[in-house]
Amino acid sequence: MLLKNILSKQTLTTLTAIALVAMTAISVNAQVKVVDTTDIMKEFDENSFRDASPVRKIKDSSSLFQHLIGVKAGYSLNDVSFSQAIDHKALTSAKNFGIYYIYYHSLWNSIPLFGIETGLQYTEKGYKSMKYTEPDTVKNRKATTGKERYQCIEIPFVSQFRVDFWKMRILANAGAFGSYTTSTSFTSVVPDSISTTYRKFGYGFIVGGGIALIFNPVEIHFEVNYKYSLNNLFDQKAFYTDTWVSTHPTQLVFSVGLFYRIGKPYGSRKSYGKKTKRAPAIELAPAKK
After folding, report:
1. What is the per-residue pLDDT across 108-137, written as a single tens digit (0 to 9) for each?
2. Choosing a second label site near 274 at 20 to 30 A (CA), which of 33, 42, 119, 246?
3. How many CA atoms lie within 13 A of 51 on its CB side?
4. Which residues of the chain have pLDDT under 50?
């Protein structure tokens, strides 16, 4: 009888504990509401970001990408760098003109400082050769001067750095060129043993700079460029039998160019500077019960 009473008390205690746990769970569940995530995601529909203004580091996107085509004409001071003491003088020429293409681009769509220039140019190079006659004294001797000219077709490939401000542009050029001599005009001052050894193909580097005046869509470029040929104009053994003579042509060109911007600037947007329309408000559906 005593054992029966003890078991009855334990059973009652266990049932009471179970009932308390069940009531607590029901109470907590009644306070927790199930959230319908479908309605929340509607708030972040892609249309709700239409009125977000883009990040614009540069307001005028036309300064990022440009295509220019134009012509140049110039006046040059030509010479030849001799490795030995060869009497000569510089020669000037106005036969410098060509057609050019310029592509201005940016770095990371935000730094408009770079460009590439190439084209096809006709140019005249040369130097003045000097031959002295008797008496062979520095004070009294007289010289016979000959104008040694040769005409070339050149293809430049120049990296053009630029800085735009107001309606102007500062230019800095650095690049290379290749040339082909189409014709020559050597005088009798230079013997045939030398003049017949000229090299038709040439190459070298270009450095220079200038300034541009911008009148959209037209631009006027004023430039000064220095060209140095890495090839020899004549055979190195043509002057002396026992000594090599290097002959590297040089050219200082003062040019004026007229360029026209073709097409629309890449990357331009009609919406720049204009207010965009707001997307219609999205009504959220009531939460499901």
Report:
1. 777 778 899 999 999 999 999 887 766 555
2. 42
3. 6
4. 2-4, 6-7, 32, 35, 44, 55-59, 61, 266-276
| CATH code at position 251 | 2.40.160.20
Whether residue 3 lies inside any domain: the answer is no
202 with 181: CB under 8 angstroms? yes
Question: Does 24 map to a domain?
Answer: no
- Give me the domain span that covers residue 99: 65-261
Phi, psi angles (nearest 5°) of residue 278: -75, 145
Q: What is the pTM assigned to this prediction?
A: 0.68
Q: From the CB of residue 216, how many other CB atoms can be counted at a distance below 10 Å?
A: 9
**Count of structural domains, the chain:** 1
Is 113 part of any domain? yes
Question: What token pair was written down for 13?
Answer: 């205690």
Residue 140 covered by a domain: yes
AA letter at 157: F
Beta strands in 201-242 (DSSP E): 201-215, 218-229
